[in-house]
Amino acid sequence: MGDxxxxxxxxxxxVRLEVENFKSYRGFQNIGPFKNFTAVVGPNGSGKSNLMDAxxxxxxxxxxxxxxxxxxxLYSNSAGNSAExxxxxxxxxxxxESADGRETHFSRIIAPSSSSAxxxxxxxxxxxxxxxxxxxxxxxxxxxxxxxxxxxxxxFQGDIESYAAMSPKDLTDRFEHISGSExxxxxxxxxxxxxxxxxxxxxxxxSKRKGVTQEKKQKKEQKEEAEKHVKMQEELEExxxxxxxxxxxxxxxxxxxxxxxxxxxxxxxxxxxxxxMVADKEIAAKRKVQAxxxxxxxxxxxxxxxxxxxxxxxxxxxxxLKEDIRRTNKKLKVWERELEExxxxxxxxxxxxxxxxxxxDNITDAQRQLEGxxxxxxxxxxxxxxxxxxxxxxxxxxASGKTSKAKTALDTLATTQQADKEAxxxxxITNDGLQERLAxxxxxxxxxxxxxxxxxxxxxxxxxxxxxxTKERGAAADANRKAGAQRDFLQKKVFDCExxxxxxxxxxxxxxxxxxxxxxVSQRKYNVAVTVALGKDMDSVVVDNDKTAKECxxxxxxxxxxxxxxxxxxxxxxxxINDRLRQLGGSSKLVIDLLQYEPHLDRAFRYVCGxxxxxxxxxxxxxxxxxxxxxxxxVATLDGTLFAKAGSITGGMAGNLAGRAQRxxxxxxxxxxxxxxxxxxxxxxxPDERECRQEEERLTGEMQGLEKTCxxxxxxxxxxxxxxxxIDAEIASLSKEADERAPGIAExxxxxxARQEKMAGMEDQINTVKDxxxxxxxxxLGVSSVREHLESAMTKLDKFNKQKMAxxxxxxxxxxxxxxxxxxxxxxxxxxxxxxxxVLKAKLHxxxxxxxxGRQSRQAQEADLEEKTREAQELQRQxxxxxxxxxxxxxxxxxxxxxxxxxxxxxxxxxxxxxALNMRRADLLAAAAMEQMQLPREAGAEAEEMDxxxxxxxxxxxxxxxxDYSSVSREHRAASDGKAREKLAGQFQADIQERSSLLxxxxxxxxxxxxxxxxxxxxxxxxxEVEEAKQxxxxxxxxxxxxxxxxxxxxxxxxxxxxxxxDRIFKDLTKSSVHPMGGQAYLSLENSEDPFLHxxxxxxxxxxxxxxxxxxxxxxxxxxxxxxxxxxxxxxxPSPFFVLDEIDAALDASNVARVANYIREKTRDTxxxxxxxxxxxxxxxxxxxxxxxxxxxxxxDLGCSATLTFDLNRFVG
Length: 1213
Description:
With 1213 residues, the protein is an alpha/beta fold. Helix content is 65%, strand content 9%. It has a 6-stranded antiparallel beta sheet. A hairpin with an 8-residue loop joins strand 5 and strand 6. Helix 7 crosses helix 20. The longest helix has 130 residues. The N terminus is likely disordered.
């Protein structure tokens, strides 16, 4: 199904969503329609995420992942109590349209289990309004490739961060969900357990058969070895006796020398103890003198304290007097400050009152002047009165009747004229705005052009600086690289020298571990091959369980001992032995067959050795490792060459350990030490690596800063060019619009002017009629036109009334202000404040006189106290001098103590050496007794009483046994130094080991003939059991391999598909004009054989960035990498739609734009692998790329969420 990304169009899409009482959505709401690329927008808390929860809910996501139980998913309004505020049933329906145009309605209902108030809630599923089970519902979703368990259709808020922080193993688990290989997981582990069990049974039966075969061979050879065994046993007993006696001889010599050294150190220790006692006495004497001095000083300080207390008790009024002076001073300052402020306030008040009076006088004069003017106009007869006014009213009524028709026509024209004037004004305002905008655009264009020119200069300078910094960093990097290479070379040389020195020290003396290894390998010629095959597990320690291993590791950690590897028998998974490898022929053998070990360690040795083979030559090893068809084996040869299953070859091993030990002489050893010292000096002379790295990082940082500056300038340049283009386009558009408007404005202005002239003519006609009617009254008043006279008079009257009211209002306000200022008693308060200040000054003067009188009496007391203080300081100085002398004495005593401690440590070391020698002597005597060795005693020595335990082992004091060493040869006595003794001991041990091995092989058995037939019968039964177990193991292996291959193929199909596409997707998300190639991203398997059992490594390298681990990337880089992984995973078994919740939260503007462009590109019908995308986003440069917007808002009246849909395709093109 991973090939679905080749679809040329979207296979299906979500048409709409219907919700009823779900989370914050109250009642029934129809949300949609959803386009190919729909963005869900709205403020925080409006309910956007609840919309995603609704989609997840209807598509079968478990309620545990939706932040609440079924009951909590229902809408609830705590502010109301109605059924609509607390519903008991909810519904989410998703309408899906398939590629052929058919609609499928997926519904999931929240319904109570019963009618009780505290009942539980349950989910009900419906397909096209028909109730179905969850399996039927899920199967229908799977038909459209909507995988609920894999969640291939949605990304929750926070999933991006989890993908970025996902471990390799977690990523593998995710791939198993996506690929479907997890369906084989349970069967895989069950069949693996069956296979391991069958193989272990086969291995056990084969070991059993091997034992029977070996027993058969032993029974056949035992009779021939019986006679040879007796003779060799006697020779071995004699050799062991000589070996024990030789060891005891040298131990007695070492004991005598150690006792002499011990006596000498005891004398030195006694002398050091006497010196320490003398020093302790001198220190005690000095401390006694110091204590007397301190006591005298303390007594004197107590006297000083009592006198000061008495002085303060005798003059308690001094403290009170000082406090009164302080309080009075503080109060006086406060009152003086308040007095000054009140004086300033009083002066301001006087000034304000004077100004208010002057203003009131001016207003009064203006009122009188206005009244005089009105009276003067009335006297001059400018206004109508009495009979004249009644006659004028009658004439006016007759004139209105005669001119009513003309007046109506004039009003109609006036209305039209007013409308045209307003339209003309609007057009002129619009035209003025266009002209202002054009002027502004010209200014903007000038500024943008100047900014463009400055950017060109700045970019050229920046590129030049960047080029210089690049050259400088390249030179620094080359120097650092050369220094690093030289440092690595010298460090390798030092390491090689130190390793060679360590090998030289170790190879001079064969350790007990090496001896045991030789004993464990059945044939010595395989020593090197077995050592190479075991590899790092050669030094591993076998323990019984995990607890023991952890306790051992804790001990090593506490003791700061080098780490070791522990193999717990209870939990280690041992690989079964492939019996077919025992039948390959040639010189090949299984390593495990060459080792001798206790049966209970079988699991550990099978874990370490596995199916590793050993052969004689490299040619045969190559054939065994790689020449067996598709099956490969791990093979070691006798010369130490190792052929790994992966194809690598390791060789060049040295010969046996003894050969290595012999090649190191004193001259070579000293040469190595000298070379190591020279290499260290050269290392120290190299420049400091940290400083070089810091310098390179500094230059890199400056380069990155310059690159970012250049990038920003390039972006600014592009934006400036675009801005200039936009300004030019807008200027052209506005100029065109202004030109189009000009004829209309001119035409409308001409129409208004013509109508105005017509209206003026009509007004003249009406006025002529009125003037003829008013001729008689105009003659009485002595004016040319009473109409004009009345209009002028009414205008003047209105003006007089307005002026009169304004002056009356101002006069009222000024009188109120004067009344308020006159009521203030600020002057009285100033006088009261001055009196209070005078009282405080008199009180302060009196207190200061009292304080001066008390000061003289205190000065005499303080002079006496100062004298006593000087005496106390002198005693303090003497005590400090004594403390200095004590420190010197303690330092000398400490030195004597350290010398004594060193001598004591030497004595302890000597005593430990004596104890070790005595213990070794006792162990040798006990070992000789256990092996029933009769060691020769000195002549005349009395036999000691022996105690015998249950096992027949004799014990006595090793110091009481006096042996006769006369049988020890002169050559054996001469081996006095350690090297000679080790060499001779090695010869003894080698001879004893060789003879013991031969004796073990020749152990006689008188009943071997009778036992031979019984062993043959057991061998036949064992072979039948082995064949049956092989058949069962083969059957289990075939079944396991089939399931493993199916799981492998399913997993790798998904991995190969996703791995092939992730780099392309990451490049699409990161490429830009600056970095047209984008970044790099790839997936790698930690184990290619069983990838589903190990991790998947996800690596992403943003443009111009070097390789870094995922956790070292920035938040935005992690988000882009995680999105690339998500989109790559989505291409395998893709759902027809993808719901994403705030995936752009951690992205900057440029990355948001790239992600939005990518999603828009992938949601086009013509795109390869197209899909429908529903994205919740808060960033405008993201959702502006969408085909449609679904706005989510909060209805504060109803306390719920509401949605609005806006189709953006209407504005495209």
